């Protein structure tokens, strides 16, 4: 799959998008789908896209390629960037963040220069969310930037307004989860407990502080230069908030960016054809809409207690289930007490990883127990599968609010005083969603209706394609790009 870079002569009025993504599953897959869609819009070869990911992720994606090579899947190319550490670890503190930012900026700058030397100049850099080294490189090379917001528009509005006058009221009530805040564009007041976790974390957590600092710089940049913002959502899903945020930002709704269930996807965890054949055949053996699918994503870790409660609840409800449980998915590192064989039962199948979109698209899946990351949420919407949310952090707290209160396609599993969703509670939620009560039927009908709207938006010549074409037309190949060079220095990271 890895091919060495070849010189390509620049084409008249051509575009080369360099899309830079964090090295985690939830950034790489929507980044890849966007890069593919951009390229396919240029059927005459006038649009080219390259996806850049950190070295550690690149090695997992292309184990047979060297990091000196550019890989390709026949549609887009892939190139690694280095943060100076290249081990996939999270930053430790402000000094570590600054060092890695400089190293990443230097690596990306070299990539841009190399493409220019080979007749493939980058005409626009797109970054997923808050990849700040991109801003440094754009300033250095005078290249336009676009922000790829891979969370719902509601989260963009919440974060925008937090940094534009609402931070004091939010932080002053952070310890009261039921306190309600009215934000522009939201259909009703939002409880503090439904805000993204880092905005209401008063514990001094290093990660929360780091995220707030990153967003602070991002929104200052947006205020000064008003870059294009691509939203992985669609108008019908968040009509009011999209209409409001367009008053402040230059946004394009290009979602749902989930690809199709038949397209190859990137898996950063072990997942081969033998595993896939096994769980797909298992699904096929069950009646339509009968299976409970359970997965908590690529980052979330649960305690052994929580996993035991989940397995107990699944067995209690008496419905067939497919449970994704990674060996590194326990937060207490007590992996020895949890192996996949111990959790198997006549009712269920347990796997370490799966092709989630293909599973959700299968006719036998009737419910999705999820951490409610945005990728998982939008995949459930596109697949028409009701959701039981077990949110943990970041945007998940807001996403479950949207699922339950705004769209009516699922419910939240309530945690006890120890922060655990008990097996009894999970079984109750599954029965509520998959049973025959009026509420269960309403949830399923709403899920089906929203699926049709989402698929219409994603189809060829749908709103996503139209808006993406409009975005491309706004990018001037020879456009100017400038900013106050002192801006980045004024913000201490």
TrEMBL record:
Broad enzyme group: transferase
Stored Pfam families: UDPGT (PF00201)
Molecular-function GO terms, alphabetical: glycosyltransferase activity
Keyword annotations of the record: Glycosyltransferase, Transferase
Record InterPro entries: UDP_glucos_trans, UDP_glycos_trans_CS
Keyword DNA-binding: no
Keyword DNA-binding: no
Top-level division of the source organism's lineage: Eukaryota
E.C. numbers: 2.4.1.-
Family: Belongs to the UDP-glycosyltransferase family.
Protein's name in the database: Glycosyltransferase
Organism field: Urochloa decumbens
């Amino acid at each position: 799959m890895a091919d060495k870079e070849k010189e390509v002569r620049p084409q008249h009025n051509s575009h080369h998008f360099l899309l830079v993504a964090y090295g985690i599953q939830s950034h790489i897959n929507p980044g890849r789908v966007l890069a593919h869609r951009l390229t396919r819009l240029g059927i005459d070869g006038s649009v080219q896209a390259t996806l850049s990911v950190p070295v550690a992720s690149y090695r997992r994606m292309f184990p047979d390629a060297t990091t000196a090579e550019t890989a390709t899947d026949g549609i887009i190319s892939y190139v690694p960037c280095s943060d100076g550490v290249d081990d996939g670890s999270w930053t430790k503190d402000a000094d570590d963040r600054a060092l890695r930012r400089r190293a990443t900026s230097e690596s990306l700058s070299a990539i841009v220069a190399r493409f220019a030397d080979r007749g493939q100049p980058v005409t626009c850099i797109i970054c997923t969310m808050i990849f700040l080294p991109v801003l440094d490189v754009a300033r250095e090379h005078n290249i336009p930037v676009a922000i790829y917001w891979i969370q719902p528009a509601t989260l963009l509005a919440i974060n925008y307004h937090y940094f534009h006058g609402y931070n004091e009221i939010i932080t002053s009530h952070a310890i009261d989860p039921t306190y309600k805040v009215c934000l522009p564009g939201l259909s009703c007041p939002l409880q503090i407990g439904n805000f993204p976790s880092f905005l209401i974390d008063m514990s001094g957590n290093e990660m929360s502080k780091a995220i707030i600092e990153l967003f602070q710089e991002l929104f200052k940049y947006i205020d000064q230069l008003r870059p294009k913002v691509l939203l992985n959502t669609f108008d019908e899903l968040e009509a009011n908030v999209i209409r409001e945020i367009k008053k402040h930002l230059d946004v394009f709704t290009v979602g749902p960016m989930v690809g199709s269930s038949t397209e190859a996807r990137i898996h950063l965890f072990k997942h081969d054809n033998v595993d896939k054949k096994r769980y797909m055949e298992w699904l096929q053996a069950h009646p339509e809409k009968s299976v409970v699918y359970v997965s908590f994503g690529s980052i979330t870790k649960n305690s052994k207690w929580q996993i035991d409660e989940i397995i107990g609840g699944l067995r209690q409800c008496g419905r067939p289930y497919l449970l994704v449980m990674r060996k590194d998915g326990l937060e207490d590192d007590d992996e020895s007490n949890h192996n996949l064989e111990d959790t198997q039962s006549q009712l269920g199948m347990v796997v370490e990883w799966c092709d989630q979109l293909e599973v959700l698209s299968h006719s036998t899946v009737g419910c999705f127990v999820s951490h409610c990351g945005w990728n998982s949420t939008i995949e459930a919407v596109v697949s028409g599968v009701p959701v039981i949310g077990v949110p943990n952090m970041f945007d998940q707290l807001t996403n479950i609010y949207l699922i339950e209160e705004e769209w009516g396609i699922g419910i939240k599993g309530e945690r006890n005083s120890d922060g655990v969703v008990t097996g009894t509670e999970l079984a109750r939620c599954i029965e509520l969603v998959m049973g025959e009560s009026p509420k269960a039927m309403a949830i399923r009908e709403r899920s089906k209706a929203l699926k049709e709207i989402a698929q219409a938006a994603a189809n060829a010549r749908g709103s996503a394609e139209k808006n993406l074409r409009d975005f491309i037309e706004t990018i001037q190949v020879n456009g100017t790009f400038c900013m106050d060079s002192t801006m980045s220095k004024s913000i201490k990271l």
